[in-house]
Amino acid sequence: MADRLLLLASLLFCFAVPTRADEPCQSPYLPKVTGQEDFVYVFTLGVEGMGDGSDKLVTVGANPSRPDYGKVVSSVSVGGRHEVHHGGFTDDRRELWMGGLDDSLIFVFDVATDPAQPKLVKTITTFTKDSGGVVGPHTFYAIPGRMLISGLSNAKDNGGKTALVEYSNQGRFVRTIWMPEAAPYGYDVRVSANLNRMLTSSFAGRANYMRKLPDLMGDAEAMKHFGNTMIVWDYHARKPLQTFTVPGAPLEIRWALAPQHYFAFSSSALTSKLWGVFRKDDGTFEAVEVATIGDPSKVPLPVDISLSADDHFLFVDSFMDGTVRVFDVSQPRTPTVVLEQKIGSQVNMVSQSWDGRRVYFTSSLLANWDKTGAEDEQFLKAFNWDGKTLTPVFSIDFKAAKLGRPHQMNFGSIDFYRGRVAARPSPASPQDVPQAAEGG
C-alpha cells in the first residue's frame, strides 16, 4: 500500500510541474512565460583592453514597445576573465547562474528584483572542491529546488573525465555523479520530464578547450581527446541506462516538446552531422545520424541548435562559416534544409522565442577559438522569423560598445516578476542536505 501511495504522489508531482518555458530550449521545470520577452541577458567574455576587460552579464532591450528596444540597458561585471560560457535560471526564475570554464567560478545574479538591472548576489568559489574535483561548469539546468550542472573536465589531469554536479537553489552543494568509465566525457544535460529520461553529450577537457583552436586542430594527439558518446539516464535515479557512439563531439541536446514526440536532437561539431535519439517500441532508445550539416570536409563546426516549440524547425548554427541552417524536422528521421543564411563571419549561439516569431544570434564560441582580425565579429543580432525568412530587426556591435565577446542568451520578463519578489522560503526537503561526492 505504501508503495502505491508513493507512486501516486510521484505521478501527481510530475503532472503538477510546469512543462513549458518561454524559450523552447529551457528546462521543463521552469514556470511558463510565453509572452513578448522584455530583455535578452547575454553572457559576455571580457577582452583585455576593451572596456573594463571583465566578463559580464549584459542586458539588452528586446520589446519593441519599450524605449530601450535594441539597446544595451545595463551590464554587470564579475571582475576578471573566467571564460564565462553557459548558465541558466533557477526553477523559480529568481536567479540566473553562469559559470567560468577556466577557473570554475560560478556567478549568481538576482534577476527578479529588477529584471532590467540584474545584480550579482553571490559567487561560488568552491565548485571544484565541493564536487570532488570537477572542473569547467558548463550547462546550468533547473530541476525542482536544485541546479543540475554538467562539468567538462577534472582537476587531476584537465582531461575529459567529468561529472554532473547538483547544488540547491541556495547555493549549497548536494552531490556529484561521475560519468561512467566507459563514457567519461560530458557537455550538455537535458531532461524529458514525461519520459523520466535524461540525456548527456560529450566534448573535451580543459587541456583542449583552453588551447588556441589552430594549435589544437594541428595537434593529432590532442584531437583524439574529444568525446564521442551520448548517454541515456534514468533521470530520477540518476543512473545511466544506455550509451551510444556518436563520433565527433556531440554538443547541444534538444528534446522534442510535444508530449507524443519521444525523441531529441544533437549535432556533432567535428563531423558536421545531425543526430536523432529516438525511443523505440520497447522503451529503449537508439541514436541515428539523420542529416549532414554543410560540407563536413570544410569543418563548418556546428555548435548551438534550437528546436521550435512546435517541433517543426531546428535552427543549427555553424561557427566557422557563420551560417545558420534551418531544418524542417516535422519528419524527424528525414530532416530537410529549408533555409541557409549567413549571419556573420562567425556565429555561435541561437535562441528563439516561444511563439517562434523572433530569433537571436551571438558570435563568440571560446576566447581562444574565436576568429581573429577583421573576421572576429562580436555581435548580438535579432531577426523576425515567419517560417520561411529571417528578417533582421536590430544588431549590437559588442566590440564597438566595448562589452567583449557575447555568448549565451536568456530572456527576461518584467510582468512575470510582479508580485513575486518575496524572499524565497527555506528548503524543507531532506534531499537538500549536502551529501558526499559519488564515485570519482
How would you portray this structure in words?
The protein has 440 residues and is mainly beta. Helix content is 8%, strand content 40%. The strands form seven sheets. It has a four-stranded antiparallel sheet with strand order 3-2-1-28, with no helix packed on it. A four-stranded antiparallel sheet has the order 4-5-6-7, with no helix packed on it.
Provide the structure class. mainly beta
Shape type: globular
Termini separation comes to: 38 Å
* Nearest-integer average pLDDT: 91
Based on DSSP secondary structure assignment, what is the total number of beta strands?
28
- Assembly type: single chain
Largest sheet: 4 strands, antiparallel
| Helix count from the secondary structure assignment | 5
Our Rg estimate from Cα atoms comes to 20 Å
Taken as a percent bin, the fraction of beta residues is 35-45%
| Physical arrangement of strands within the biggest beta sheet | 3-2-1-28
Helix content bin: under 10%
> Which residues form runs of ≥5 with pLDDT under 50?
1-21, 426-440
Entry summary:
This protein is mostly beta strands and 440 residues long. Helices cover 8% and strands 40% of the residues.
SSE diagram, text form:
Blueprint: H1 2-16, E1 39-45, E2 56-61, E3 72-77, E4 84-89, E5 95-100, E6 106-110, E7 119-124, H2 127-131, E8 134-143, E9 146-154, E10 163-168, E11 173-178, E12 189-192, E13 197-200, H3 206-209, H4 213-217, E14 229-234, E15 239-245, E16 250-255, E17 263-268, E18 273-279, E19 285-292, E20 302-307, E21 313-318, E22 323-328, E23 336-342, E24 350-352, E25 358-362, E26 379-385, E27 390-397, E28 405-412, H5 414-417
